[in-house]
Amino acid sequence: MTSKKSFLVNIKTNVRRRIWLIVIMFLAFFFSMPVYTAMTLSMEKMYMANFRQVDLYLGRVFARAVGPGGGKAIFISLLAVIAAIQGFSYMYQRRKLDMYMSMPVTKGRRFAAIYLNGFLAYFLSYLINMLLSFFVAQAMGANASVAVGEAGCALLANTILYLAVYHIAILAVMLTGNLIVTVMGTAVLLFYDGILYLLFMGYMETFFHSFYYRTAQQYARFIISPVIRFFRFMEIVYGGSDFYGMDRTLHWEKFLPGIWPILLVAVIAFALAYWCYTKKPAEVCGKAMAFVKTKAVIKVLITLEAGLGGGIIFYAFSGSSLLFFVFGMLAGTLLSHGVMEVIYDFDIRSVKNGWKSLLVAGACVAVVFCLFRFDVFGYDDYVPDADAVEDVAMKFTDSYTNFYDENLDSIGEEAYIFDGMHMTNVLPVLELAEASMGNWEAMSENVSPMVVNSARREAMRQEDEIPAYRYVAVRYHLKNGKDVYRQFPVAYRQQVSVLDTILKDTEYQKGAYLVYDEPLMELGDRLEIYYDNGSGSRLQAALSMAQLQQAYAEDLKGFSYTTMLEELVNGRLILECIDNGVYVYANLPVYPSFSKTMALLEQSGLDTDGYLNLGDVEQIVIRNNNSEAYDRYIQEADYTSDTRFGYSNFAVEEAFSDSREMAEIAEALYPDSFREYWMPEEVVDGEYYVTVIYTKKQENAESYSSNFMMLADEIPDFVKEKTTYKGDGSPTNSAPITNAVPVPAYY
Q1: Coil, helix or strand at residue 268
Q2: Percentage of the chain surpassing pLDDT 90?
């Protein structure tokens, strides 16, 4: 009994010394919870005059305010650091330390009193202000019961985060003997692994051509920093959804799987902190480090990051110079060594000390650099054995399609394919990878844009000299449960037969095409179906979704990479649903060989022949950029003395309104809106930009004009003649159109 009373006396005594910390904690949570709740709900109510179920909506707003959040996590972490350093700050001053040591209190009881006060100052301040927030929310018309789950989750998760950071900061106090060094040490302990992760990902992206960013997401799970890990926890507990959104859904069953790494760090950090507390000698008060043996280890670890970071920074800002990469590593290593030695001894002359640890750190930096620079482990050559692969997924990295999940939330093509595609016939993909992983050097020498000018197009026709490439990303799901990601450039003309096999694979099609997106297709006839021929208009198709899905899926069975090489998109089907808060938009390209889909459209009375109805065309304006003339100007002129001119000063525009000329031009046009569907690089000539002006607004269109590209092999000679730059090599100030009519404004 006497022991308990004595402990309570110790706590009360410590509370009096730390009253300012308690006040700061309470005020911080008061303004960040009840006051923030009142301000947020007041702002929301300004725009809710016509809302139904206002109380439920405000309840969701309140739930987001009191639930887990990234900003709140950083704020709580800062409070934890302040509490830890302030609680044990007596260790920085010899007079105070002697006073504490002279008291008839055991080290364990002193630690417990200080530790418990630092925790209770946080927990009680948080709990009281959270309850006040509920009263505020209810008083302002919100259904506060909606937020009970989120608030409870936040209380538990934020408390575990607080403890983890609190313990790490206490550990930093025990490892050091100076306030400034403690602050720096806390930052190192909290973020060292996060910085190391960023450095390694930067090195992989710099030196490994086949690195795909999903690999970074895999390695992120090894980060143990509680602050960084908390963001991963929010992704897990909200099911990967937008955890800042209004409609986020809390999954309690995922709470423990998401929070346990932070809890584990908290336990380990506490054990280490208390052990160091019991071993810390009093004579280190005021010194940089409490334990001599830790100096070299900590210095090597920090210098390693500084050297690696210096290399990548100088490399990035020197135009990818390998020489500056090496210089940056040397600079970072030497500077870090010098700074660390000065901090250790508080003496500038100490720069010359610690050369053994400098050599170890420098050797570590050099080894890591060489591992990446020379790809010692064959990262860019990796293709797994077929026997080791359970299934694969593949996507073209220049393809961007939005899919929909069971909640009809939009998800990206990359997530949809890599999470949902499972091709068990792995041999074609492995064959493609084996043939393509060696293309990196050739690819770097012959990088070409998607749309090329006429000179580049002529060169590309020499396929044996300059193959055309397209990036592919793959996911190998190995039989040991591991997922491995790679990307590589495919010489698609040389590998067309393998690509055909892959694209015709049923499992590939089900994982890559919108027509197999079940949540989207289950909308059925709630989806409005339109046909867009590229002219800027869209016509409603009188057919059922079931009919379209069946016909389109049947046409896909014959769809291959050869189809994409030999055909251009004829039109596209637009699927749209705006109903009871649901908004869905998707489109399906229609190729000429899609016979069943084309027949279905024709049966519904839609004209699928051609992109333009010339009877509705007022004129066609064609712009030729004449970039070759500009390139010659740059080579011949003293460019450094006159930088006013660009490509536009060599461009020539011409408007055509003669019906025969427009008919011939129409045969060479391809809708600019179809640019999203892949086509071979040499199909269109990127020098030409076409604007078609109509006599009237097209049906369901938003403009009196639409834009087109020009098919390289179909450009009429009279167009080339009239739009080719014929100057003396000097730039023109403008490229006037003498016979163009104004484009009507649309309101």
Answers
A1: helix
A2: 60
| For residue 741, pLDDT beyond 90 | no
Question: Which pTM value belongs to this model?
Answer: 0.84
pLDDT, residue 535, reads 85
Q: Who wins on pLDDT, 43 or 336?
A: 336
> How far apart are alpha carbons 361 and 296 in whole angstroms?
10
| DSSP conformation class of 690 | E
Q: d(Cα 588, Cα 182) in Å, to the nearest integer?
A: 60
Distance from C-alpha of 610 to C-alpha of 600, rounded to nearest angstrom? 17
For residue 746, the model assigns a pLDDT of 36
Reported as type and span, the H/E element at residue 309 is helix 292-316
Tokens describing residue 645: 């001119």
Report the C-alpha dihedral over residues 276, 281, 286, 292, rounded to 10 degrees: -70
The one-letter amino acid at 558: G
pLDDT in tens, 136-175: 999 998 888 889 999 999 999 999 999 999 999 999 999 9
Residues 700-722, buried b or exposed e (16+ Cβ, 10 A)?
ebebbbbbbbbbbebbbeebeeb
Task: Please give the Cα distance from 529 to 525 (Å, whole number).
Answer: 9
**Strands laid side by side in the 688-694 sheet:** 652-656, 617-624, 688-694, 705-710, 669-671
Provide the token pair at 473.
């990303």
Return the amino acid letter for 386: A
Going by C-beta distance under 8 Å and a sequence separation of 6 or more, which residues neighbour residue 641? Answer: none
Geometric angle at alpha carbon 428, from 425 and 431, rounded to 5°: 135
User: Distance between CA 56 and CA 38 in Å, rounded?
Assistant: 16
Rounded Cα gap, residues 221 and 142, in angstroms:
38
The one-letter code for the residue type at 683 is V
